[in-house]
Amino acid sequence: xSQHAVWMTFRSMTADPSVKSQKLKPGTIKRIFSYGxxxxxxxxxxxxxxxxxxxxxxxxxxxxxxIIDKGVIPRNAGLITQLALLVGLLAxxxxxxxxxxxxxxxxxxxxxxYDLRSQVFAHVQRQSIAxxxxxxxxxxxxxINSDVMGAQQAFTGTLxxxxxxxxxxVLVVTTMLFLSWQITLISLLLLPLxxxxxxxxxxxxxxxxxxxxxxxxxMSSTMTERFNVSGALLVSLYGKPxxxxxxxxxxxxxxxxxxxxxxxxxxxxxxxxxxxxxxxTAFAYGIGGxxxxxxxxxxxTLLALTALLARLYxxxxxxxxxxxxxxxxxxxxERVFEVLDLAPMIVDRADAQPLTxxxxxxxxxxxxxxxxxxxxxxxxxxxxxxxxxxxxSGEVLKDISFTAPAGTMTAIVGPSGAGKTTISALLPxxxxxxxxxxxxxxxxxxxxxxxxxxxxxxxxxxxxxxxHETIADNLRYAKSDATDAELIAACKAxxxxxxxxxxxxxxxxxxxxxxxxxxxxxKQRLAIARLLLKAPTVVxxxxxxxHLDSENESLVHEALKEALRGRTSLVIAHRLSTVMEADxxxxxxxxxxxxxxxxxxxxxxxxxxxxxxxRQDITANEKSAIHD
Length: 628
Description:
alpha/beta, disordered N terminus, 24 helices, 9% strand
């Protein structure tokens, strides 16, 4: 029994046997085959190479028989030379076919991985923001990586293994029965000696493998949380390095111990299997030797039988685990399909038209909104805590109606949790309204294509997100073909050019993860420059100046004036001093507009706006007094 055969058997044992009891959805098998259709010619050629390799397995032992019986014993040197050369030639042919088959296997496997990964990535990109608020990132990445690779095994490793083992087994058993049915039957009776240790070791390996996966996942999660900028900062300020190190070492030690146990079981299994094979070979030599002395069996036939015996137990043992191998691959496919079958919550209507106007009047018509439930937007298997939600969020917005004429600034203010940010999320259709409608120039935004709608909207959030790339790459995310001159113009308008120009690498400066190499004000101004490059028709500012010091706030205000000029804008603000010049101010409380008007009007009314403004004004005066 070859070491490769032992390894393939051992790999099967690490698979989780519980997959055998899983039920596949109707049509899964047919759907899986549809992914292999583009590769059907390659798969056919690959399987031919597998069959040819299986046939060559029995060729060498049979040639060995001829060399002994018709060459060595009769002292026919010429025949010995010819047959030896033929054995060498077959070895070369086998090696070439093996390489040829591996090339096709790689093309099929990597092609499937490419197709599935690309399809899953594109599909996930189309999911709504609500999907990402529920989904555990690690679980989603696992689907794109681990499950996709497991799925491709169905067409390469599993399929080729089943075909190769079945063909090899049939040919080997048939040939052995033809050569000596007595030795063949005795060899098959010894099969339980192979299967019993295989099952015992398999159960131990499966348990250890599960524990190792869980511990590695835990360590991965720990490293992900501690090794990003925010996590590292938190650990530095509040954490206890010794405690963190001890926590990690404990898990790393357990993984190391599991690795030692697995290595020992692997070696025990290999030694046990090869020992049983040696015992079976000893039986064959003993019985075959007596048959050869009696003239019932030739010496060449005896040697051929012992050579074939080494090729018998590998396929038999591997096929005993074939159901686990097949189901593991099929379940991986089904887990990928589970993601692909989750329909995006926000999609274009069949008759959606692009938005072409460069001037937009916005109107909210009796808009109400309730956040969707988890089962409407995500998969339980992709969530960290997959517990069904039985209570709805309730109406976050209730009968919201207002008009924002083209080129005007509408401010939305109110206490935390009033629904301000929810309004900003409905405009670019990150969510759809539950009832009512939002219109651009009188057209329901659901009748517009999502791409054209979002192309027309620019957003600056409270915490501007920057990718771990250069300043230029982050800016060009809004306009990929922007020239350096356009970048400079946008940065000057956003009051950030003097900083970029002072940096040694200028636009090629890497901003760090989430832009942590820049201050809050610098990130905001860079985000505004990105918005200016996009040149949107509508601008949404969601707490864009929150948490900034007075100097940065002043610079950001100057940048925002340029961003808002001539554009329809919705400004969500906590600092009411930043929206005093708005064309209209909407005051939200518990999802309802309770006041509307300009700053002076609202102050005179003495309502919630006046109360909030007075409170902030007193706080600002107190801070000024303390500073003085």
